[in-house]
Amino acid sequence: MRTIKYFALFTVVGLLCACKAQTAADNIIPSDDGLFPFVISFAGADNATDFSALLDAPAGKDGFIRVEGDHFVNDKGRVKLNATNLTASANFPTHEQAERMAARMARFGINCVRLHFMDCSYGIDFFPLAYEGCIFANDGSDRNLDPEMLDRLDYMISQFKERGIYVDVNLYVARENYAMKSLNAVNPYIQAKEKEYAHDLLTHVNPYTGLSLAEDPVVALIELNNEDAIFTSYIRGSVRKPEWPTVKQLRDGSVDEKTKRDLFHTLEKLESEHWNNMYDYLKKELRVQAPVTSTQLQFSMPSPFEKMDFNDMHAYWQHPSINVYWKQNNIAMSNSVNGGTLPELASRRYAGKPFTVTEYNHPYPAFYGAEGQPMFHAYAAFQGWDGVFSYSWNNRYDEEPESQEYFFSFAGRTDVLAHFNACAAMYLRGDVKEADTAVIPVVPMKAFEDDFVKNPSNASDPVRLINEQTDGRITRKHMLAHKIVTDIHKAEPVRFEEEEMGDVIFSDTREIEWNNSEPGHGMFIVRTDNSKFFTGFPAGRVVDLGDGVSVALGKTKLGWATISLASKEGNGMLSGSTLLAATGFTHNKDAKFTVEKDAEGNPTTYISCRLKDWGTAPMMTEGINASVTLASEADATKCWALDENGDRKIEVPVKKNAEGKAVIEISEKYQTIWYEINVE
To answer: Considering the entire predicted model, what is its pTM?
Structure first.
């Protein structure tokens, strides 16, 4: 790999809600005319929608996942985690539900599940759901594991293992008083409870596998804590000793530079000691084999992560505002001229460690959610990241919802699930190649301290500082074009040549294009031999997907659509089976949306969906009209519209263009979101 070294400061930021205004079309709520019900089945499937062959079952057969250099490996070689989350009571399905869920996840090419929020306390309300159960007995102790819940968890893990699906075990997320985990670096009582729970959970022997989680290679990763660290807790005001200055005093100049630096080192020492103590407890006393990390990078400075095995991040595009009805920006990331969430994520990867993103979503009810996971997975493959986790598969006991029950769930979200196979192909199979060029900002540890002194926060803005330190020559657009790996152990800058970036950004492999040449009509395109993807607003343009494949999109309700093609066999699209998915406007039946107004009463891009307007099952979706031209000969090509299970329901005529190539007219009349293309 060619390497270009750049000098820049690297920082972190939290969950992303920033947006820019786009076309007036985003303020219009389309009519439901022509929408039809379509709920993807809850079983595994032996048809064109089954990508379970990408999994290597049973999980752990090639030994424990471990770290070598900056990647995960096992005895067979490199391991990439194409993953999702289960949240709260969703971690405790019945045995029958667990079997079906494991088969369904495998069908979509999911090879890891993050076991998240299962330590939540009874009675906690987290809008809009009251949690229905957790791993603790409902005895008020928040310490005794519930035998029934533990049995359900054990059986689910055994089913995952059988299908080739690893697990990522989260330890301290939500138990007892949720806010108390912010004290874990300074409170011995909380530290003792952390160790107690880790011991009880990780040393418990699963009767269905005969192994504890500490000794079972099905465990890919372990996270000590979710979304908290002492730097964040201090900035938020939830942790402060009397001798420490307040955040207000830091920011208004009431304290001198030495006091600020002393505070930085105090926080750094407390946090490092706590994470290192917990790490040693898991590794040395509990004999945990899996890689371990502490929390997500955006919640702290880099030095407390030094001993951890891997680095992790979370990000959301247009995260709903947390209020009585969680209003949300209704903006497509494909229209973002600055790369949306992706530059921040790319700029946070540290050299020498594997990098994961264990939560990512473009939440419902925004209309453009289908684009999120494919864009994320394509860039993760290009950047060479080691684990990508959609958040969340489900948040309920009901493992088979037929509608959208929560902002972040996927289990019933037809428009998002339709493209999961393509996500697995692009990332897990490696259809999208890793970057040819690495951009390596050099960010000495001292830079983080200096930035804390100037701009006291839990973490810094990496894109801003990289841009500042390179006189504007490294921008968000550069982070879309090249692989970014930040070196925090070198101290000297490395100079570089300036590189111009326009409105059309190509990855240096030329497989990914982000086209904002027409304002308000952005397009994101992936062109590989075995996967092709498009999302955006073509505005009458024919979308070239490479290798003789193109899409001419008809009229849609949003002027936007998401279309993916993935070869099932991975041997190109001139033979075998290809799954084509096409989605547009999709929401719960009878859902009602409100366009918010600004202070002057003008419509904005904000929408909201109050609980009374959330709607019911089933999911209703738009059929996409488009002309898809292929490189295969028309006489050798067949196509079928598929039903909810992915089985063929009606043959679609294949036309012939002037060169004799196949042309397929997909249509709303077929009332489907996916098609099978077969080339002899």
So the answer is: 0.94
